[in-house]
Design a protein that fits this description.
Elements (H helix, E strand, L loop, with lengths): L1 H13 L6 E4 L15 E13 L8 E5 L1 E12 L4 E17 L8 E17 L5 E16 L10 E14 L4 E11 L2 E13 L1 E4 L5 H10 L49 E8 L6 E3 L1 H5 L2 H6 L5 E5 L7 H21 L7 E5 L12 H7 L1 E6 L6
Parallel strand pairs: 14-15
Antiparallel strand pairs: 1-11, 2-4, 2-10, 3-5, 4-5, 5-6, 6-7, 7-8, 8-9, 9-10, 12-13, 12-16, 14-16
Length: 381
């Protein structure tokens, strides 16, 4: 039996091919591009070391040698992507016993033979030619003694069994499999088997044979071209997605996709107020607030501002409408003086029609005497 197993191992090593191509029986690689599972059968034959630990506390016998050479044969059937059934037969060998009674000097043995069935799960590693296996099942542990004097553990009984395994592919269909199997509380086998796979799906890892790479590299001509000039990448100082040669606001740091085609920030809404005395168009302009936006207005040549004049309700409606226009013109003149293009500025008079506070109090009327600067969106221009 040992010669047969060793012969199979030597045969598989002799037929060693590129392990990047192998049959896959379990795991996500067991399905093809159409999500179709391919059933698979694996035959295993192996040899290993058996370990025995029988309970001899209630007898005059004690174990003298708790190890032996064991043999195993099994077949695995993969019926789904992650699951398989396995049926096998294991000859664990024999454990040797001696008796404390000096009248019984002979060494006796108990041999263990175990057919077993398992259900298990397998996973194929995507980048390595390795399968990981785990299984549970039932083993019919059959024991027989070399002498009628040795009555302990001479029976056949069903026992819970389990196992762990690791299969390493030597070629497309040949693999080595390491197993640890427990068939009862007192018998275990650590083994190395040779596996042969039928069916399944052939998987090719994303790697090439080194020798073929060397041959291809030697055969392919090597051409080194010297570039006439280095390609210069246009500068984008403020990292807004608009290159400096087209960016009109290159000195400002803006968020990408929040600028227009000129590299300037898009603004909307009202951002400045100017207060006036009652009946007057001489502005008391909050220059500190306004000056904070002058660089933005100058750097945005495509932006238009709507300058809106307002009044309180003191006086006639017609007089207030004219007064609100003069107030808007006053702020426009102030902005033009500071460098803003007059074509960007639109004036509008609303008189007393849109108060923001009550006109019944002096404080409310003061708030209503105002000019608002409103940035127009592209749709409003």
């Amino acid at each position: 039996m040992i010669r047969v197993v060793l012969g199979l191992i030597l045969l598989s090593v002799h037929s060693l091919a590129d392990a990047s191509s192998r049959i896959v029986c379990g795991g996500p690689l067991a399905v093809d591009a159409d999500d179709q599972f391919h059933a698979c059968v694996v035959i295993n034959a192996g040899i290993g070391l058996s370990q025995f630990s029988p309970n001899t506390a209630d007898s005059s016998w004690s174990i003298d040698n708790d190890q032996d050479i064991g043999f195993r044969l099994s077949a695995e059937y993969y019926f789904s992507r992650y699951s398989f059934l396995e049926a096998g037969y294991v000859d664990l060998g024999s454990a040797e016993f001696t008796n404390s009674n000096t009248a019984i000097s002979a060494t006796e043995t108990i041999s263990y033979k175990t057919p077993a069935v398992f259900i298990g799960s397998s996973y194929s590693l995507p980048t390595l030619p390795v399968d990981i296996l785990a299984k549970i099942g039932v083993a019919s542990v059959s024991t027989s003694s070399s002498s009628d004097l040795l009555l302990a553990h001479e029976d056949a009984s069903a026992q819970f069994a389990w196992g762990l395994g690791l299969r390493y592919f030597l070629s497309t269909q040949w693999a080595l499999k390491a197993d640890f199997e427990a068939f009862s509380e007192d018998s275990h086998l650590s083994s190395l088997s040779i596996s042969y796979l039928f069916g399944g799906r052939t998987h090719t890892a994303n790697r090439q044979n080194k020798s073929s790479q060397v041959i291809q590299a030697a055969a392919a001509p090597i051409v080194i071209a010297e570039a006439d000039s280095m390609t210069e990448i246009p500068a984008d100082t403020d990292a807004d997605g608009v290159i400096d040669t087209q960016d009109r606001c290159v000195t400002a740091q803006h968020l990408r996709n929040r600028v227009n085609q000129y590299g300037c920030v898009k603004y909307t809404g009202t951002f400045v107020n100017s207060q006036f005395a009652s009946g007057s168009y001489a502005a008391s302009i909050n220059t500190e607030e306004l000056d904070r936006y002058l660089s933005i207005l100058i750097d945005h040549p495509d932006t238009q501002l709507n300058i809106i004049g307002h009044t309180d309700n003191i006086g006639s409606e017609a007089d207030n409408l004219a007064l609100s226009q003069r107030r808007a013109d006053t702020v426009k003149a102030y902005l033009v003086k500071l460098g803003i293009n007059a074509e960007q500025l639109i004036t509008q008079a609303l008189g007393e029609g849109q108060p923001i506070a009550s006109n019944t109090t002096a404080t409310g009327r003061e708030k209503n005497r105002r000019v608002e600067l409103q940035v127009l969106s592209q749709d409003e221009q």
